[in-house]
Write a structure and sequence with these properties.
Blueprint (H helix, E strand, L loop, with lengths): L1 E4 L10 H10 L4 E4 L17 E5 L15 E5 L12 E5 L5 E5 L16 H4 L1
Length: 123
């Protein structure tokens, strides 16, 4: 089940009771939450959500300015292996120093590395 918090009218709800009912029924519960509202309201994980997603665009590039726009995706441990892409990657800077980066990347295996045009394709 997917719910949005706050909803399209700006109403904020606590879905803790609904979460308990869904868990008893074996239903996966997803909350789409505004990232800035999480400073003031109960976060999805504390309401019992299995998955939390949302846009972080308002903390990035303005909508009319192009993209890409950031987002977030979080889940309970039971679902982390079912997420697409990989979670931690290793990058090297121009000096050869290694750095760990968090990334949720799609696997675009149909694109050859030498023909790739984006960082996601070449990673």
């Amino acid at each position: 089940m997917v719910v949005q918090n706050p909803d399209n009218f700006g109403n904020v709800k606590d879905f803790s009771d609904l979460s308990v009912q869904l868990k008893d029924s074996g239903i996966v519960f997803t909350i789409i939450a505004d990232i800035l509202s999480l400073n003031l309201v109960k976060p999805p994980g504390r309401m019992g959500a299995d998955i939390a997603v949302g846009s972080a665009q308002r903390m990035g590039i303005p909508l009319g300015y192009g993209g890409p726009h950031p987002g977030y995706f979080a889940c309970i441990d039971a679902y982390k292996r079912k997420m697409p892409g990989r979670i931690i990657g290793i990058s090297k800077d121009v000096h050869g120093n290694q750095a760990f980066r968090m990334a949720l990347q799609t696997r675009e295996q149909h694109i050859r590395r030498d023909k790739a045009t984006s960082n996601i394709c070449t990673a």
